[in-house]
Amino acid sequence: MFETLSRGFRQARNRLAGLTELTEQNIDSALREVRLSLLEADVEMGVVKAFLSRVKEKALGRTLEVKVKHAGETHEVSASDHFIKICHDELEAMMSHEGEEIAWAQSGPTGIMVVGLQGSGKTTSCAKLARLLQEKEGKKPLLVAADMQRPAAVEQLKVLGDQLKVPVFNIPGASPVEICAAAREQARKQGRDVIIYDTAGRLAIDEPLMKELSDIKAKTKPENIFLVVDAMIGQDAVKTARSFHERLELSGVVITKLDGDARGGAALSIKEVTGAPVLFSGVGETTDKFEPFRADGMASRILGMGDVVGLMQDFEQVVDQKKAEKDAARMLQGEFTLDDFLEQVRMIQKMGSLKDLVDKLPIGNMFPGGLPQDVNLDDRELVRIQAIIQSMTAFEKNDPYALIREPKRVERISKGSGSKPEAVTELVQKFLFMRQMMSGLGQNMGMLGKIPGMK
Ligand code: GDP
Asked: 119 CA to middle of ligand 1, Å?
């Protein structure tokens, strides 16, 4: 399941491996892989386009490898990890829904009308839903057998109802509309609090079917209308969903046979195309193989990279809060090197500005007149700073004063990094100034009391 999709994302990730920055060019080349696999997996064309453009927009300019602690180990978060996380979030947004799967009635039994084409798994899904509600929600469902189109459907529902000890209501010889209309009274008599209507299926959508379903909807006024679609039929499932939604205003979709070798495109496209979210998925023939559709889990499965996603989630939480505070505290103690400086400049960059960072600590107003404006660096400058620092030897990083004492070193670094010698000198001076300023500030703070992360 989802192998076609996962392959595309894996290849995209491979294309970005080892890169430190997401640029228009490398994003485009990664997205080409993703595009192919989305189309191959039967994702609707418009959905593919929208997804690619959203990922591209978010990915542009994201840089790289920050170290994070995850499950006790230190990991590098690379450009490709960023890319995958952005894909994950976009996939999740495409499939997610708000609120509970089921809208409950304010008073009286809750109605769930289940519709779908023949063979989609509608009758099975009615029974699965009854089981889920009975076991997980403590509800007392009543199943209504109103699929008079498929000869065996009524019998099939009765067999399943018997297995689950859920009553099944039917009136032999009556029309589906009559049966559904009578079900509420039956539910009251039997003390049932949810009514699940298994309605007629057809091989294809036609007017008599839609008319019958509209009539049942008008008579029973169900709180929920669920469409059952078969994941195996790919884009046709999306078309089916669109037609049903236009006519009946679906509250959600149940996607079945996700356990098979369906390519998964339908699961990705349905909400984007129709506006009706997928709420449940069928993952096997037996009645226990049914679960609420979780967009987050589905996105991770599609990417086939659970760890990266978890890591990035940690990254966002840890880096933005604890790590930034700890690093800031370290800066305040004057205990940092040019490598730290580089890392912290990236952090500051991520957080907006050094001023914002300091504002997050209880010392924000300790700077008379605020921070120097030029500590707010733009992306190009960040890349330049990185190149300069990386051109330094370990000795120079350890003793930046060497660069002021020996201009030859500055020239070498200037050549190596492609920056002017003045830019190198300026960077060193800025670094030394910051270190001194932070250290002085830290000492003052030490006298005043606690700073998060400081000893
Ligand atoms: P209906 O005509 O829409 O009522 O379809 P049925 O409920 O009779 O299901 C059609 C076939 O699909 C049956 O053989 C079911 O066992 C099978 N089926 C339904 N849901 C699933 C599912 O989630 N996974 C698998 N593998 N088979 C399913």
From this structure: 6
